[in-house]
């Protein structure tokens, strides 16, 4: 049996497009945990048996829409506050990439890219501890799935 390849947990990450350098994606500092979710919304249709309509009908499903969301939690890094606030404090969607694998790993790196809204930016503080943050991101339209390509 061959051992599978795996990803290091810290290579799952949300990158935002730089406001000052379009086409450049940056990883805001501080998040230790990322959760990425894709969902498919379906519509149900009950399809009866034509030969015996009294038999239990099977439900068939059509895809109505696709959705993406991500959350990140971690330390509130001073270096990241402005990036997260600016991304949250706009009514326009912004460009983002969600990586699995390192951004410079042409063998194993992959990412989703598209428009997102930062829908949540939560800051918590407790005496004796470092301030924490939680961010929430949702897609605004289609995300494309890509393999990292590295040009030598």
Characterise the protein shown here.
The protein is mainly β and 152 residues long. It has one domain (9-40, 68-147): Hcp1-like (Pnp Oxidase, Chain A, Roll), CATH 2.30.110. 7% of the residues lie in helices and 51% in strands. It contains one helix and eight strands. The chain has one helix at 78-88, and strands spanning 12-17, 25-26, 31-47, 58-75, 94-100, 110-124, 132-139, 144-147. Strands 1, 2, 3, 4, 5, 6, 7 and 8 form an eight-stranded antiparallel beta sheet that branches. β6 (110-124) and β7 (132-139) form a beta hairpin. The longest helix has 11 residues, at 78-88. It is extended, with a radius of gyration of 20 Å. The two termini are 34 Å apart. The relative contact order is 0.22. The mean pLDDT is 94.
Shape: extended
Provide mean pLDDT, rounded. Answer: 94
The major pleated sheet works out as: 8 strands, antiparallel
Which CATH architecture would you pick?
A: Roll
| Rounded Rg | 20 Å
Order of helices and strands: EEEEHEEEE
Gap between N and C termini: 34 Å
What share of the residues lie within helices? under 10%
Strand content range: over 45%
Query: How does the helix and strand content classify structurally?
Result: mainly beta
CATH top level assignment: Mainly Beta
CATH topology: Pnp Oxidase, Chain A
Model regions low in confidence, pLDDT < 50 over at least 5 residues: none
Number of domains: 1
By DSSP (H or I, 4+ residues per run), the number of helices equals: 1
**CATH superfamily label:** Hcp1-like
State the total count of DSSP E strands. Answer: 8
């Amino acid at each position: 049996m061959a051992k599978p390849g795996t990803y290091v947990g810290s290579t799952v990450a949300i990158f935002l497009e730089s406001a000052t350098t379009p086409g450049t994606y940056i990883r805001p500092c501080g998040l230790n945990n990322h959760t990425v979710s894709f969902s498919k919304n379906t519509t149900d249709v009950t399809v009866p048996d034509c030969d015996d309509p009294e038999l239990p009908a099977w439900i068939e499903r059509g895809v109505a829409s696709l959705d993406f969301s991500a959350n990140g939690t971690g330390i509130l890094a001073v270096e990241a506050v402005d990036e997260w606030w600016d991304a949250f404090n706009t009514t326009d969607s912004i460009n983002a990439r969600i990586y699995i694998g390192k951004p410079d790993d042409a063998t194993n790196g992959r990412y989703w890219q598209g428009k997102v809204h930062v829908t949540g930016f939560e800051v918590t503080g407790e005496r004796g501890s470092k301030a924490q943050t939680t961010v929430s991101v949702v897609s605004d339209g289609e995300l494309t799935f890509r393999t990292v390509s590295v040009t030598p």
